[in-house]
Design goal:
alpha/beta; two-stranded antiparallel sheet; Rossmann fold
Length: 93
């Protein structure tokens, strides 16, 4: 399964890539939304693993832009966010 992992924490991203690779996933890793946009323009992904807090912006806002442009790739949001209202907003789209 072709996967895009968007996370700027290099050690965590590397560990996730190895673990997912062992499970048969093909994982592209990028650390910014700019690089994620470039990756999306060059490849088709079956799943998106997305950190919310990235150096160049908000992952949720970027995901909403993807949806607006017709991308329906399933997304798994990764965050240490402890704000209940924001977590509910994420689930509601």
């Amino acid at each position: 399964m072709r996967t895009l992992l968007v996370d700027h924490h290099a050690d965590l991203a590397r560990a996730m890539r190895l673990a997912l690779g062992d499970g048969g996933f093909v994982v592209d890793v990028v650390g910014t939304l700019e690089l994620a946009s470039s990756a999306f323009s060059c490849a088709s992904y079956e799943i998106l693993l997305l950190e919310l807090a990235l150096p160049d912006g908000d992952g949720l806002g970027w995901l909403r832009q993807l949806r607006t442009h017709g991308h329906s790739v399933p997304a798994v949001i990764m965050s240490s966010l402890n704000d209940l209202d924001k977590r509910i907003a994420i689930f509601n789209g």
